[in-house]
Amino acid sequence: MTALVSFRDATLGYGQHAILRGFSLDILDHDFLGIVGPNGAGKTTILRTFLGSLKPLAGTVTIAPGLRYGYVPQRDPVDSLFPLRVLEVVLMGRYDRIGLGRRPSAADRDLARAALERVGIPHLADRSLNALSGGQRQRTMIARALVGEPNLLVLDEPTNGMDLVATTQILGLVRDLHERTGITVVMVSHALNEVANYVERIALVHEGGHTVGTVDEVMTQQSLSAMYGIPVEVSSFDGHRIVVAQRTREGNRHA
Amino acid sequence: MLDAVLLFRDALYGSLIIAVTCALLGVYVVLRRIVFVGAALAQVSSAGIALAYWLAGHGIVAGFAQHPEALSLAATLASVAFFAGAVRGPIPPDARIGVWYAAAAAAGILLIAKSAVGEAHDIFLQGNILGITRADTMELLLVSAPVIAGQVFFAKELLFTSYDRETARTLGYRVRLWDLGFYLVLGVVISISMQFAGVLLVFNFLVLPAVTGLLLANGMTGTLLYALGAALLAAVAGFALSIPFDLPTGPTMIGVSAVLVMLAWLVRRVQRRG
């Protein structure tokens, strides 16, 4: 498969401060990849590097020509003060295609409504974004990412602050989109238990290193225990993997 | 009253131009949460005017008495570069703006205290809105027309880069450049408006109509239209009330703006209960 993004022995970080060293990863066409790790491990640094906001401090990051991102940001940075309707927000995903100084056409609006249909909320097009639930807002942002016809969908902590039902629905929606259309998906999350049951490959990032492989390769007791430096148990229930940190002798729970 | 209004019709036209331009920009000032930047830029601009009068009054650069806007604009644009720059270091952005605001306000007051030109006192405190002439109105129009046209033409780009910078960046928008452009336009508008309207009135038109719009509308277009309407109404009503009652025009316009904000707040409360 073609690599859309390739990190080769890259040092990633901000200014002179390296957060990840020797980082290598291929994001392949039709991939469904989860970049997972604890807060501060460097997930956002990886994300910002391949989105172009950061340059690698060393090594190479190669982006396939013509690659177009559909980006779903974390919920927090999206400002709820703006009085925007759902359709207006979705249309933003086409702004660069519409061109400088031009207004969205009827065709653009039709595409925005179609994107809302794909994420299951066509009836909310004229509602205020601020009146929606967390899950509905996240569907709006996914619709906005899709309406620009991307070849790589990137979601940053897509289930942050959501309840169990909304989390399951959003992750199910993303997997469904990947399976139906074959779109490449990269999902960045700190929630290993959530992501591991949906993606096909995992890049597990932690302080001082990273492991990349299929879910079966990465989600093993030995691999995770070595990675986190504490005894970790991987259980399975009804086809779902559950990762649990074992209690230590002192009775402290690590994760 | 009509006669008095007609007598000062150039001043009214000038006020309307300032009101419209500041109100439209003000919606983005409020939404971007940079109200304090607007206040600081207005103070810097007034300090520039004060410096111009001080220099002119002491015979250092006599020409500044006729064109104080030159120094005002220079000081404002220098500050714009500071506000639009990247934020690094341990001092949070609002504290940096606060330092700028306090220093500019103090510098302005000190320069005015030692200024030999009495006119500077009025301009610094409340502007000289009734003193706007036909030539001033044309100058204001010359600045405001491209600003308003630009805001209409680049409406979606301005919205996107204000609302969701990270996503805009992934779609190829040079967000820092758009920021710089916005701040530059804001600086020019504040600087030009300041010399006629004063710190308080410019700040009023940047903030209060936008707040009225946000309280009343549900969408961006509605917010901009309500802000525009509130600014125009405040300018006209403030103007019309100030002349027969012998009130200072600028503060009267601010009073009307404040009443409109309160009415909008009441309407919103009633709507929510209903």
Pick out its properties:
heterodimer, A: 255 residues, alpha/beta, 2 domains, three-stranded antiparallel sheet, 11 strands, globular, B: mainly alpha, ABC transporter involved in vitamin B12 uptake, BtuC
How would you describe this protein?
The complex is a heterodimer of chains A (255) and B (274). Chain A has 255 residues and is α/β, with parallel strands linked by helices. Chain A folds into 2 domains: 1-67 and 152-219, P-loop containing nucleotide triphosphate hydrolases (Rossmann fold), CATH 3.40.50.300; 81-150, no CATH class. In chain A, 31% of the residues lie in helices and 29% in strands. Chain A has 9 helices and 11 strands. Chain A has helices at residues 43-51, 86-91, 95-98, 106-118, 134-147, 164-181, 192-195, 215-218, 221-228, and strands spanning 3-14, 17-28, 32-36, 58-63, 69-72, 152-156, 184-189, 201-206, 209-214, 232-237, 240-245. Chain A has a 6-stranded mixed beta sheet with strand order 5-6-7-3-8-9, sandwiched between helices. A 3-stranded antiparallel beta sheet of chain A has the order 2-1-4, covered by helices on one side. In chain A, α5 (134-147) runs parallel beside α6. The longest helix of chain A is centred in the C-terminal third of the chain and has 18 residues, at 164-181. Chain A is globular, with a radius of gyration of 19 Å. Chain B has helices at residues 2-7, 9-31, 35-57, 69-84, 93-113, 119-126, 134-153, 155-163, 165-170, 175-216, 220-242, 249-273. Chain B has a single domain (2-273), classed as ABC transporter involved in vitamin B12 uptake, BtuC (Orthogonal Bundle). With 274 residues, chain B is mainly alpha-helical. In chain B, α2 runs parallel beside α7, α7 (134-153) packs across α10 and α8 (155-163) packs across α10. Chain B is built from 12 helices and no strands. The interface between A and B is medium-sized, with 28 and 28 residues.
